[in-house]
Amino acid sequence: MKVSFQIKLFISLVLFFSGLFVLLGVYYYKDVGRQLYQEMSARAKIQAEEIAIIPSLRQSVADKDIRAIAQFMHKVVAHSDASFIVIGDDKGLHLFHSVHSDVVGKTLIGGDNADVLKGKSTTTIRKGGLGISLRSKAPIFDDVGHVVGIVSVGYLTSYLDRITLGKVINIFLAAVLLLMALFVFSWFFTRSIKKQIFSLEPREIGLLVRQQKAMMESIYEGVIAIDSELRIEVINQAARKLLALSQPTRALRGQTIAEVIAPVPFFAREVMLENDTHDEMCRFNQLTVIASRVRIMLENKLQGWVITFRDRNEIDSLSAQLSQVKRYVDNLRIMRHEQLNRMATLSGLLHMERYDDAIRYIQAQSEHAQELLDFISSHFSSPTLCGLLLGKAARAREKGVELAFDPSCRMDRPSSTLGEAELISIIGNLLDNAIEATQRAELPHEPVEVLILQHEHELIIEVADRGVGIEPEIHEHIFERGITTKRHGDHGIGLYLIASYVAHVGGSIEVSANEPRGTIFSLFIPETGNVLRPVPTLEDQNYAT
């Protein structure tokens, strides 16, 4: 039958402390006995020596006046706790015995009188007429210093053992009460331990720990668990690798998060207590990451937080690949759709035998497409940006909206602060928002005006539409995650990403009304290459609204 951990721990505690009490009891019994024998030896010696120096007794012993000795010693015995007091002469014969008066004149028993008759006091354990006893003997001297007798004061060992046993019994009763209290304490203690470990057995806890360790090390993302005092509890290998930490996990455990990652607003205590966050872009040491933070609650009490993060460059690479594929698909779909429309128009003209109109239609379409292609390719050096703008222009035409590029548009070199993927994301999201806002406005749809101008120290991106504008209730929150001006689909991330990218390089965004209707988004991105460190939060930017 399997015994639960609680019962095992309870039995172990009881057996351990019971054994400890037994050992302490044996030690105490022996120690009390030893101390009692020492105490009684000293008491017997003092009594013997004090009796031996009484003048009247000395004279009576020298004269061997048995009657005088007996009268005097009966008074002494009445005030003594000794088991017996014996007076002997210099020949080793009894002159007085406090218990057996019939031994007077007989030889002292024990064989320990030789040293006493030589003038020395002794303390011995010997068997006498009453049994084994602890006795102390002192010599009685006459006026000239000769030994004339012996005083023997003794305590029977049986009497000493009774005293020792009485003390031990009292201690034993206290120990029993203490042991009972220990039983109660052990039971509640084991119940508390069982509750804290969620009624799991040690082997189950060990298995969970091994599983947790394996899971943590198998997670590709960096994971850090911190307690309520911001001390690291768990950090996996991916986190140490991303943060370039050389210390082992054991050395990092217990350190504050500020000792491992340079202080950033993401780890500000007041920010962490306010709310959790998901997919927030920030900078950990020298690495730009996408991080999430979730609090750990146990029985409605904050236990700490779990932080997960990924290298933003890897996410950007994957995002760029997906965006590129999506653009290719969208462009092919748009081109196919436009081509079908053109072919249908051309087919109709030919069926009506309006050949001159068909030729003019072909020339017009070719000239418009070539003009847009020539403008974009001559003003922008990035093939990726050119492809984006051509695709967005075609998509806008499909939706009945025209893109009007400012003649001063020019970008001859890559941005020194923004990556190409970030630039494409910013321009693409701005154009998508402007096209959709224009499409939702009343007919006729006016063109969306686009300005992309690169100066020596600044890149300006401006998109102006004559659409429906921004609703007043969300005007102050349009850069927050999940806030959108669109009515259908999964939105609310575009402007948030734009603001994050611009904030990361220390740029600014201005949002203004495009009278009589519509909105103008103006982005000013520094081209000095001085990216802000640490990364500012969106709240730190000065957005003009």
TrEMBL record:
It catalyses: ATP + protein L-histidine = ADP + protein N-phospho-L-histidine. Residues 334-529 form the Histidine kinase domain. It is found in: Cell membrane. Its EC number is 2.7.13.3. InterPro entries: HATPase_C_sf, HATPase_dom, His_kinase_dom, PAS, PAS-like_dom_sf, sCache_3, Sensor-like_sf, Sig_transdc_His_kin-like_C. Keywords: ATP-binding, Cell membrane, Kinase, Membrane, Nucleotide-binding, Phosphoprotein, Transferase, Transmembrane, Transmembrane helix, Two-component regulatory system. This is histidine kinase. The chain crosses the membrane at residues 6-29, 168-189. It comes from Kosakonia arachidis.
